[in-house]
Amino acid sequence: MQPLYSNVVVTPLEVEETKSGLYIAEKKKDDYQLGIVESVGPGKYEFGIFVNPPKEIVKGAKVLFKTFSPLTEINGSEVYILDASEIQLVL
Q: Which of 8, 59, 63, 75 is deepest in the core (most CB within 10 A)?
């Protein structure tokens, strides 16, 4: 699957603490989610200039993102379809 524009497809992870020691507080779990990037769109035009998604956001990267978008089921698996700007941190 290939997302359009600067969209990113992310599979959610159910992890409380990462190897780097990142821990998501219980009351913030509804706001933030860990996931693995499945695919990244090519970019988009903003004010007549083509803008690529950040180079750190690549397939297989572990990311922390805000969960504004609903879970979407594609090919039997649940994924988030996010704009690259919704990703807060690449681990």
A: 8
> Among positive and negative, which fits the CA dihedral 86, 90, 72, 6?
positive
What is the C-alpha to C-alpha distance for residues 89 and 57, in angstroms, rounded to an integer?
9
Looking at the structure of the chain, the number of domains it has is 1
CATH number at residue 79: 2.30.33.40
Cβ distance 91 to 22 under 8 Å?
Answer: yes
- Which has the higher per-residue pLDDT, 18 or 20? 20
34-40-41-42 Cα dihedral, nearest 10 degrees: 130
What gap in Å lies between CA 85 and CA 26, rounded to an integer?
Answer: 24
Expressed as residue numbers, the domain containing 71 is: 7-90
